[in-house]
Amino acid sequence: MLGVLILAFSIAALGQFVVFYARAVLASVAEQPLTGYVQQIEGFPSRPLKAEDFPHLVQLQRICPQVGPEARGLRAARAYYRALVSVKRAVNGFLPGLNGWAEREQTLCARFAAVLLDQRLARTAAAAADMRSY
Q1: How far apart are alpha carbons 116 and 22 in whole angstroms?
Q2: Cα Rg for the chain, rounded, in angstroms?
Q3: Phi first, then psi: what are they for 98, rounded to 5°?
Q4: Where are the domains of the chain?
Q5: What is the largest CA-CA distance in the chain?
Q6: Helix, strand, coil share (%) of the chain residues, nearest 5
Q7: Which helix (H) or strand (E) holds 14?
Q8: How far apart (Å, rounded) are the C-alpha atoms in residues 91 and 44?
Q9: Residue whose C-alpha is closest to residue 61's, from 120, 106, 124
Q10: Rounded to two decimals, what is the model's pTM?
């Protein structure tokens, strides 16, 4: 019985570590500056990113060509974003502090997606410029 309890606590601690590590990676990538490729996309808003921009950025990344190795993917960010949507639905305005936190975290996910899209567009532009030089 004690072994099962230790195993359960160990799995819970490992899960907590994975969540905190993924959140730290998400935040560190989101802090990187944008080079401007995302702002040049036709129809993309010139205002600061909002939580609602995340699905649009994911769709743009799906249609953008991949040049070179994929450094990071959006799988973890999409899962985190969906979990935050569930949190916002569950609190449904009853806990404004938790709702505001979830909104800020979703904006972080949108910023993460924008940085990844910007990096992908920069690699694509560099490859196109390299091909034109021949």
Answers
A1: 15
A2: 18
A3: -70, -35
A4: 2-132
A5: 69
A6: 70, 0, 30
A7: helix 2-30
A8: 30
A9: 120
A10: 0.82
Q: The tokens 């694509």 sit on which residue?
A: 124
**Distance from C-alpha of 26 to C-alpha of 81, rounded to nearest angstrom:** 11
Sign of CA dihedral 52, 63, 47, 127: positive
Q: How many residues does the chain have?
A: 134
pLDDT tens across the length of the chain (134 residues): 889 999 999 999 998 998 889 889 899 988 988 877 777 776 676 778 888 989 988 888 888 777 766 656 788 889 989 999 998 898 887 888 888 889 999 999 999 998 988 888 888 888 888 777 77
Q: Which residue has the tokens 């975290």?
A: 105
